[in-house]
């Protein structure tokens, strides 16, 4: 009976010890895995990135070149408009200059604007008036207001902020006439101008004002 109890006691004891050893092994194994896992994570540092990555530097240069080109093109268009309006307003009382003005405006204006503003017809009429004046030293009722030398002194041009193809222009010039040779008028002509590509598509004369009159 004693031997049987001893056997049972030692059996239970061995089972308890075995369980304890087994639990200890499992615990140590998990602990090692945790430690290994912790050691496998590298240290990190915060990287502050730029809003504009370096890979866009080439694009940035392209944008600057594009902006420069657009500015240059816009400036050239403005200069072309200034030159065209200067020629449009100016006038010299000789047939050669009248023909030169017509030829220039034919290239500077669209065909629709050139015909609509009657540049060619005006040139023909002015040349006839000049011929009559030179031959007979006479003025007609209409030629008194048309026969005048107009010399442009300043052109001020303002581009429409909502449309780059529209301009408001003020052209200042001096005017002398054979009708009143002792008077020199300072004038300003105000215009609205439309541009289509590289040519003027319309000119609207808003007003013509006399700024002052100088008498000799």
UniProtKB/TrEMBL annotation:
PROSITE patterns: PROKAR_LIPOPROTEIN
Record's keyword annotation contains Transmembrane: yes
Source domain of life: Bacteria
Alphabetic keyword roster: Membrane, Plasmid, Transmembrane, Transmembrane helix
Stretches that traverse the bilayer: 7-27
Ranges for region Disordered: 34-69
Biased composition (Polar residues): 38-49
Protein name as it appears in the record: Lipoprotein
Organism: Pseudolactococcus raffinolactis
């Amino acid at each position: 009976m004693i031997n049987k109890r001893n056997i049972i006691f030692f059996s239970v004891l061995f089972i308890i010890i075995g369980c304890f050893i087994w639990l200890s092994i499992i615990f140590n194994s998990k602990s090692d895995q945790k430690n290994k896992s912790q050691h496998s994570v590298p240290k990190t540092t915060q990287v502050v990135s730029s809003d504009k990555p370096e890979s866009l530097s080439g694009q940035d240069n392209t944008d600057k070149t594009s902006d420069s080109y657009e500015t240059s093109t816009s400036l050239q268009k403005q200069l072309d408009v200034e030159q065209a309006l200067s020629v449009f307003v100016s006038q010299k009382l000789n047939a050669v200059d009248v023909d030169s003005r017509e030829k220039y405006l034919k290239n500077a204006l669209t065909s629709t604007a050139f015909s609509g503003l009657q540049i060619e017809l005006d040139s023909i009429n002015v040349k006839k008036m000049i011929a009559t004046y030179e031959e007979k030293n006479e003025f007609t009722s209409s030629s008194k207001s048309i026969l005048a030398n107009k010399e442009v002194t300043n052109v001020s041009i303002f581009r429409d902020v909502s449309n780059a193809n529209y301009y408001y222009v003020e052209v200042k010039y001096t005017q002398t006439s054979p009708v009143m040779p002792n008077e020199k008028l300072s004038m300003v002509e105000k215009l609205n101008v439309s541009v289509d590509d590289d040519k003027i598509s319309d000119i609207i004369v808003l007003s013509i004002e006399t700024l002052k009159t100088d008498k000799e």
